[in-house]
Design goal:
Helix 5 packs antiparallel against helix 9 and helix 11 crosses helix 16. The chain has a six-stranded parallel sheet with strand order 6-5-4-7-8-9. The chain has a six-stranded parallel sheet with strand order 13-12-11-14-15-16, with helices on both faces. Helix content is 50%, strand content 9%. The relative contact order is 0.12. It is globular. By secondary structure, it is of the alpha/beta class. The structure holds FE(4)-NI(1)-S(4) cluster and iron/sulfur cluster (SF4). FE(4)-NI(1)-S(4) cluster binds next to helix 13, helix 20 and helix 24.
């Protein structure tokens, strides 16, 4: 009999625990209970199964065995991994494609309800590609930018133009390794071609194309998605928000938006504030419409509009379990098919909206940008009409305040002010050792581990060690629910040097930078830190680590890969999809070894799977300290700052810049 975990073992979130008890009482299954019932296939989990042709599936469970075609375990693991990375890149980038088409349509006046909101960003981005901006209307510039971005998908030769935004040295590394992406779609297609039966059968060669594919996502499809989202909906800046199931309201029509693309969710936000809709809700006996987000849709509208987040990935079912949700409106990615049968137990309507995504049994109201506002209102009216069918509800009280919205533009501005916006203070704080280094902690929830546990454990420990943490995706929502995204709330849990920096600038110790597509903001921050000077001349020299403690999606693997290729050390928690046989000696483990040693030699970054959170933390700190020492920075000293450090710093700050630099870092040439 598989072991059934208690609610306390399944999640550290008390709202989730409450809903799991309710699910149990009502005899309703969730991802948590299904994970208990369904042991993962250990052959597939370790990447030892190949099913890409009809001679198989072949399971390579014995040392030295091969598939019917002769494929070795290394080839099979590499092929499985690149296919996952290709799927993840495709998902992100296809989202980017839709954004580019929307931008084009807005520029040509063909949409309803959308505007060019951030003209300054439009001009900044356009000028990176020498698109003329002087004397032209925003629409003309946007039209050119949209054309350029749309062309990146189908481009066959040359290089994806967004890669020119990486540090120069990095671009050369990619050129030399032959992994500069030519066109976003081309690399994904080639990944599929190469892994057809009888094609690329050299694990390292396959994995290098995985890098090229992922770079087309990180420095292509995802980066342009972030650019366009900011142009159309505004570049995020800090705003007060709330997170967890307690944001649902008993006396309002609750509409939960779940998925990824802000084109849908932003329009639903607009429609929910329309007097006609509010009146319609009042006629139905409710006080109005209450919107809440799940997953990255939550992040998109949270950081721009302050719309509350009902929770992260594993909260999608739990929100319906409250009985208080009139409609769950979904678009693409991370939407569990289980929602529809779960919703059958309540009055909740699951509404699919993307032409790409239908779920059997769900209501489909197809969205398109040409009639966006009209469709958004129709969706909300469907939800309001459903209010009268609501039965008994149980909404957990849990709800935390948070401040999201730390775009790279805002970080730049907040550090230096509007006249001298710069990354200098951040670089200085790292160079002096006030901040030991930076950790980007991102990614999903996974019901195979306790929800949020790994994420919070790693985050809290690194904060104590004076590591500044930036977050995106469902990981950011985990920290939000824990109250770590608030200045005051988190600071007593933070090392003394980092605390001083946070207090001086007035920021939380964990910066919420957006959705998963917005991991590109982290790449941009790292690039700007390089350009600011003092931390080496490329991303791999910065004392920084990327972590995805509870990953589950193929997109996470794509993100991890493009971060490694950008120079980062990336650690994934949970299980490794390339672990192979349990008794394998590490020397025969070609694929894992290549992702660590081979990639480090080529890109300065490496990809590791580490299930133990304490090890994750140790490896992160060791890497940060190693990078500090390679840069010749003072060794991290936990007692240097804090009270005593304050006085010293005040004295230092009174000195002229040259003398201050010498006092802090010694003579440099
Ligand atoms: Fe999906 Fe982006 Fe993972 Fe969350 S973190 S479960 S991918 S929603 Ni991206
Ligand atoms: Fe088996 Fe080779 Fe076919 Fe894979 S490609 S299923 S290893 S025969």
């Amino acid at each position: 009999m598989p072991k059934k975990r208690t609610p306390e073992e399944s999640t550290i979130d008390s709202a989730a625990q409450e809903m799991l008890i309710r699910a149990n009482d009502l005899s309703i299954g969730t991802a948590f209970s299904r994970a208990d019932d369904m042991a993962p296939c250990n052959i597939g989990a370790a990447g030892m199964c190949c099913k890409i042709c009809g001679m198989g599936p072949c399971r390579l469970t014995k040392e030295g065995s091969t598939g019917v075609c002769g494929a070795t375990i290394d080839t099979i693991q590499a092929r499985n991994l690149i296919r996952a990375i290709a799927a993840g890149s495709a998902a992100h980038s296809d989202h980017g494609r839709d954004m580019a088409f929307t931008l084009k349509a807005v520029a040509n006046g063909e949409t309803e309800g959308y505007y060019l909101r951030d003209i300054a960003k439009l001009r900044t981005v356009a000028s990176k590609y020498d698109i003329p901006i002087e004397g032209r209307s925003p629409e003309e510039i946007a039209n050119d930018l949209a054309d350029l971005y749309i062309a990146q998908f189908g481009q066959q030769r040359g290089k994806v133009v967004l890669t020119s935004r990486a540090p120069e040295k990095r671009q050369k590394i990619w050129e030399e390794a032959g992994v500069t992406p030519r066109g976003i779609d081309r690399e994904v297609v080639e990944a599929l071609h190469r892994t057809h039966i009888g094609d690329d059968q050299d694990a390292e060669h396959i994995l290098n194309h995985a890098v090229r594919t992922a770079l087309g996502d990180g420095w292509g499809g995802s980066l342009l998605a972030t650019d366009i989202s900011d142009i159309l909906f505004g570049t995020p800046a800090p705003i007060l928000g709330q997170a967890n199931l307690g944001v649902l309201k008993t006396d309002m029509v609750n509409v939960v938006v779940h998925g990824h693309e802000p084109t849908l969710s932003e329009m639903i936000v607009t429609a929910s504030q329309d007097p006609e809709i509010i009146e319609y809700a009042k006629e139905a006996g409710a006080k109005g419409v209450n919107l809440a987000g799940i997953c990255c849709t939550a992040n998109e509208i949270l950081m721009r509009q302050g719309i509350p987040a009902a929770g992260n990935f594993l909260h999608q079912e739990l929100s319906i379990l409250t009985g208080a949700v009139e409609a769950m409106v979904v678009d693409v990615q991370c939407i569990m098919q289980a929602l529809v049968s779960l919703a059958d137990n309540f009055h909740t309507k699951v509404i699919t909206t993307s032409p790409k995504v239908k779920i059997k049994g769900a209501t489909h109201i197809e969205f398109n940008e040409h009639k966006a506002l009209t469709i958004a209102k129709e969706i909300l009216k469907t939800a309001i009409d459903n209010y009268k069918n609501r039965g008994a509800t149980q909404i957990p009280e849990d709800r935390e305040d948070l401040i999201p919205g730390f775009s790279h533009e805002y970080i730049n501005y907040m550090l230096g002010g509007s006249y001298r916006a710069s990354f200098r203070p951040l670089n200085d704080a790292i160079m002096s050792g006030r901040i030991r280094g930076v950790a980007a902690i991102v990614g999903c929830n996974n019901p195979r581990s306790s929800q949020d546990y790994l994420h919070i454990k790693v985050t809290e420990e690194l904060l104590k060690q004076d590591v500044l943490v930036v977050e995106t995706g469902c990981g950011a929502i985990a920290s939000a629910k824990k109250g770590l995204l608030l200045g005051e709330a988190g600071l007593d849990k933070v090392g003394p040097g980092l605390r001083e920096v946070c207090e001086t600038i007035g920021i939380p110790p964990v910066l919420h930078m957006g959705s998963c597509v917005d991991n590109t903001r982290i790449l941009t921050v790292l690039t700007q830190m390089v350009e600011e000077g003092g931390l080496g001349d490329d991303i791999d020299q910065i004392p920084a680590v990327g972590l995805a403690p509870e990953w589950m999606s193929e997109k996470a693997l794509a993100i991890g890969t493009y971060c490694v290729a950008s120079g980062a050390y990336v650690i994934f928690g949970g299980t490794s999809p390339i672990s192979g046989m349990p008794d394998r000696v590490s020397d025969s483990d070609v694929v894992s070894k290549y992702l660590i040693e081979g990639w480090e030699k080529l890109y300065g970054g490496k990809l590791e799977f580490e299930p133990d959170p304490d090890e994750m933390i140790q490896k992160t700190l060791a890497h940060i300290d190693k990078k500090r020492s390679e840069l010749g920075l003072p060794e991290y000293d936990p007692d240097r700052f804090g009270k005593g450090g304050d006085e010293r710093m005040l004295k230092l700050e009174a000195l002229p810049i040259e003398e201050r630099q010498v006092a802090l870092y010694g003579e440099t040439d």
